[in-house]
Amino acid sequence: MKILVLNGGSSSQKSSFYSLDRWSFDSRVEPLWSAQLSWSKEGAGELVVNRRDSLAVSAPVAEPRDEAALAHLLGTLFKGDAAIISGPEEVDIVGHRVVHGGHKYMDSVFIDEKVKETMRQLVELAPAHERENLKGVEIAQRVFPGARQLAVFDTAFHRRMPEEAAVYPLPYEWFAELGIRRYGFHGISHSFCAERAAQILGRPLSELKLITCHLGNGCSLTAVKEGRCQMTTMGFTPLAGLMMGKRCGSVD
Questions:
Q1: Which of 151, 156, 155, 141 lies closest to 97, judged by CA?
Q2: Coil, strand, or helix at residue 57?
Q3: Which of 135, 139, 190, 210 is the most exposed place for a label (fewest CB within 10 A)?
Q4: Per the residue annotation, which of 26, 53, 66, 154 is the catalytic one?
Q5: What is the dihedral of CA 238, 244, 246, 247, to 10 degrees?
Q6: Is 151 helix (H, G, I), strand (E, B) or coil?
Q7: Residue 61 C-beta-side C-alpha neighbours within 13 Å
Q8: 156 has a pLDDT exceeding 60
Q9: Are the C-beta atoms of 116 and 110 separated by less than 8 Å?
């Protein structure tokens, strides 16, 4: 199975390509191809494409946030010096990291028009990311029309946290009717870290109590018991919790 992964962020678009006979969590799977389109606050952009055989191609991009720039990034998978496949029809699945799944999505889902409409409604909750995620989906559908598109939500891992952790001490109808709750973010990372820790320890995840740490430009901690999130430091938005690169974290 040939899988392309797309991670759209507020300052970059990243993509990796994998060819798998079967998925095994024990395997350290390396991408055959990867690309990153990044831009600065001044708007200057650069596209860097790498193949596992060490071939690297980089070029400046005039309009990095433009849809044509992302389409060009995806096209380098099968066109130009860094191409690794013969054509777009070889891609079976395009997986998208989507920042916000709202209160509805607890698991990854294949993307249809209904899912895309939900993503549009969630843009106001994560405007810097959800809009880029949606753009990535729509462009990938055009570039790889034969591939299935899969949304992997950053909030999904936290959707099973106990209600007493998710509900704020505010009027309950805000939770029930408006969806104001602790959503938590970085869930893909926290889920992976919990499973990887169990593997390294040689113990079943269902027997462990863990604190997982996502430390980067954005930071969060999550308490994991028996493989499920119990509490996480980020809340209704990604602002709460630890100090971060561009977010002050919780302030009294």
A1: 151
A2: strand
A3: 135
A4: 154
A5: 50
A6: strand
A7: 26
A8: yes
A9: no
Hey, what amino acid is at 54? Answer: S
Q: Is 66 a catalytic residue?
A: no
Q: What CA–CA distance (Å, rounded) separates 232 from 240?
A: 10
* CA dihedral over 34, 37, 40, 44, signed as positive or negative: positive
Beta pairing class for 93-98 and 148-153: parallel
Give the span between the Cα atoms of 191 and 185, in whole angstroms.
Answer: 11
What is the dihedral angle through the alpha carbons of 116, 122, 126, 129, rounded to the nearest 10 degrees? 0
**Interval 186-221: pLDDT, tens:** 999 999 999 999 999 999 999 999 999 999 888 999
- Give residue for tokens 């969060």: 220
8 A C-beta contact, residue 223 and residue 211: yes
Write the pLDDT tens digit of every residue in 18-30: 988 765 555 567 8
Examine the pLDDT at 57 and tell me if it is beyond 90: no
Mean per-residue pLDDT, 147-165: 95
Q: How far apart are CA 205 and CA 203, in angstroms?
A: 6
Residue tagged 């309009």 (tokens): 63
Share of the chain above pLDDT 70, in %: 95
